Amino acid sequence: MSATKKSKATRSSMINYSIQELDLISELPEPIIQRIMSFLTYKDAAKMSVLSKHFASAWNCFPSISFDETLNMGSCAGLKGKPRLDKFLRYVSGFLSRRPQRIALRKFCFSFNLEDSYEQPINGIDNAIRYAIENKVKELKLDIVGKQKIIFQAHYSLPIKVFSANSITVLSLKGFMLEPPQNLTLNCPSIKELNLEKCKGMQTLKISGEKLKIVVIELCQGLDKVEIDASNLESFSFGGGAHSSCRINLITCKSLKYLCLRNAQVTDEWIKHELAQFLRLEVLKVVYCRLLENFDVTNSNLKTVELRYCFKLQKIEIYARSLNTFAYSGGLKPSQVIIYSPCVHAKLSLSADRGLSDHWYTTLREFLACFDHCKELEIDCDMDVALIVPIIVRKNLLPPLYDLNYLKLVTKQKPENINDLVDGLMWLAPRLSKLSFISNCQEKSLKFEYNKTQAIEDDLDCCKLRPIKCWRHSIRKVTMENFEDCENMILEKFLAQNALRLEATSREGNACAEV
């Protein structure tokens, strides 16, 4: 062998030796390899397990297991009905049989879409649940609906022993039949978080547990009443179907901080009297509650209130000195909105009448006047033109937001006429410090400085004999931020023609332009 060939062979062996020496991951202890796997997606961690026997051993003892028909190695794509289910369950059984027994499980997830109605127990599913409980699983998530968006009819009877398993702290169930079929009482001694979605079989549901912190109930068919006895409960969310009339009883939940009710049987009396008992409540969300007419809440700890699509609402009255966010979605029906809070940020999502009559603009003015004291007001309206009060209508109205400093407008698309929109918004709030337009997560803004020392005379015909002068009289300087060049030019010309005492305009990062 020549010297050159020997040299190449020597270098090759040294490289191979170096690579072997650098493969330190395979030599790591099993818990560290499992820790590395925990940062990967479940599918990538499964792929990693085939690289070496050491990785495979770590994978077989991995404390988290996730069975998903779209992710497992033996794909069920192309199969329908029972053959598809059988193949998936064979994969599950084979995987579990390779794992050592009595390995403490941190998390066990099982997700499969049962296409047919399975009323009787299915051994493969029961065995998977039994395996999780026997291995003292802490977080158990069972989903037999999958990503199906249509109404789900198939329900599988869940072994009731799941609720009494002492090791489970987080339990999430989706698409199961809960028995007995009328009145169900669940005693959850160790569960801290309970999530029931698209489950049925119970008319009255009673849940108790000293350790319960979070309960979520979503789209459970046939449910008429929910009663929870959990003194340490901090978060409760209920979402019923479109025609749900479920009653909620949370009297003993004195530690409640977060409450969300959607399509629930919530009355004026329930809001006024029962909510007053939740002294620690910080977030309250009420959505699609059809019986609610007068929303009257007094709570010093409340920080966020959301009212969405409660179409019978006539009056809103909130006494909450800590309130910093109020969100409302719907029409302009509440004729009276009173919010006692010194620094609230209001977010309004309004649905405009298609006709946009004078009555609409008059009602809009009355509704917006309720938010004049807000620190910040954000408006999302499906039509920008609905916020531009016509000149002829303005003559009979006063601006509703004279004391407002900061106004945001959320738009779905670029305004057709930026000048008309600015003029309309500045009529609503004639003393703004900042006006922002938010579209596609991008914010454009106008910042205003006013001439506060010079006396304002009736030097414009638009405000003669009116107690409140419009924005044209006192603006001294305008700064434009993030607008396109063409928009900057349009706005500069518009302001120069309409702002009587305007001294300068500027663009963010540019020198001032003298007017």
From TrEMBL:
Pfam family, one: LRR_At1g61320_AtMIF1
Domain At1g61320/AtMIF1 LRR intervals: 184-242, 249-490
Protein name as it appears in the record: F-box domain-containing protein
Domain F-box span(s) in chain numbering: 25-60
